[in-house]
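Handout, page 2. Input:
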Amino acid sequence: MAVIIGVSAWGGTKLDEKYQTSEPYFTIVLSLLGIGASLYLTIKEVIKASKENESK
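Output:
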């Protein structure tokens, strides 16, 4: 999770620097997308593990 969020925040920072935005718009948006993606993947894995444990 930390890697996904960190990479997306880093990418947003780089985009803000490249386009010289007055506010950190890219950093905010990409950080939130990274959080959403990491939560999605975590929940998906938990559901998968839960189904595997039920079948045993």
